[in-house]
Amino acid sequence: MRLLEQPEGRRALLLVAGSWDPAEASRADRFSPWCVTGWCQGVGVYDVLTDTANLLGYSIYAIDVEGTDPDFNWNREQRLHGVLTELARVTGGRKLLNGERGRMLAAAVEDTRSYYAIAVAPPPGSGDRRLLIEIEMVPEGLEARSQTAVVPLSPERSRQLGVLNALWLEAGSDEGVALRLGHPRRLGGSRVSITAHLSIATEQLRWRELDGHPTTDFIIRVATADWRGNSSPVVSRRFRLRRGTRRDRELVVPWQLELRRRRYTIVADIEDRFGGDNLTAVAEISPRETPSREATIEARRRR
């Protein structure tokens, strides 16, 4: 949902669930880096889905096709219905269970023909927390269906989510940014340590006069995810450089990564705090393979 181009008007997501066991999504620790709030409550994947949908204005239309499963299980069917009902309720959508699945498109079109958009101003200090919304209808007898929660994002959390989003991008290239990877060193078990050297040509960054000296100010954020989708929390460092130092033309930042012996995607994002372009390095590596030479992760420029 974050990577798609945002459509105008009311946004609807048709979630078609077939042979999907809700018990498979109970590992909150696996999905916690992707949660809008930075942590998950209980069944983590549902928090990721509903918080992101509410943040971007999507209503979920939860559609059940479980009845087509030849190995029908009533208890599993009831669990799935409970999950789909909750996804629709929290985001202001509708549940379409059993026989209703045959009119999923017609129901969604009918439901989105008219609506009211209500702006919510969160109280100060409520960033990165899930806030409940309650709408009271006047006069009595009227009914309303809406999302029941909202998560106002702080600027830092918004940037962290942008770094995590970049884990789904293909590797690109941009002049002036490179990441050179050293040889993996075993730490015991299935874990290895790799030193990544991020090289930044600082003429790509914006400079300002501070205390009489040309200065650049930027933040580097790094995240990793393995091929199974397990992501690490975003780690950040801030740098401020002045003209006339040894590193004012090219800055090389060593970054120690501890990974399992799996295929990984690595993202290194450079935020120019003086308003220039952000640079994001995206690449795939495999610690199982010892590089015969320095591997270069190329970068993608984005605003």
Describe the overall structure.
The longest helix is centred in the N-terminal third of the chain and has 18 residues, at 74-91. Mean pLDDT is 79; it is low at 290-303. By secondary structure, the protein is of the alpha+beta class. It has helices at 28-31, 44-56, 74-91, 104-111, 155-165, and strands at residues 11-17, 58-64, 95-96, 131-132, 149-150, 177-181, 185-188, 191-201, 208-210, 213-226, 235-242, 250-260, 264-272, 278-285, 295-297, 299-302. Strands 9, 10, 11, 13, 14 and 16 form a six-stranded antiparallel β-sheet that branches. Strands 6, 7, 8, 12 and 15 form a five-stranded antiparallel β-sheet that branches. It has a three-stranded parallel β-sheet with strand order 1-2-3, with helices on both faces. Helices cover 18% and strands 33% of the residues. The protein has two domains: 11-150, no CATH class; 157-302, Immunoglobulin-like. The chain starts with 10 loop residues before the first strand and ends with a strand. The chain is globular, with a radius of gyration of 23 Å.
Short description:
By secondary structure, the protein is of the alpha+beta class. Helices cover 18% and strands 33% of the residues. The chain has two domains: 11-150, no CATH class; 157-302, Immunoglobulin-like (Sandwich).
Question: What are the main properties of this structure?
Answer:
disordered C terminus; six-stranded antiparallel sheet; alpha+beta; Immunoglobulin-like; 303 residues; 33% strand
Into which percent range does the helicity of residues fall? 10-25%
**Chain-averaged pLDDT:** 79
Rg over alpha carbons: 23 Å
Unreliable stretches (pLDDT < 50, length at least 5) are: 290-303
H/E element sequence: EHHEHEHEEHEEEEEEEEEEE
What do we call the CATH topology of the largest domain?
Immunoglobulin-like
What does the main sheet amount to? 6 strands, antiparallel
The total tally of domains equals 2
Task: Choose one word for the global shape.
Answer: globular
Within CATH, the superfamily of the largest domain carries the name Immunoglobulins
Count of extended strands: 16
Instruction: Give the amount of beta strand, in percent.
Output: 25-35%
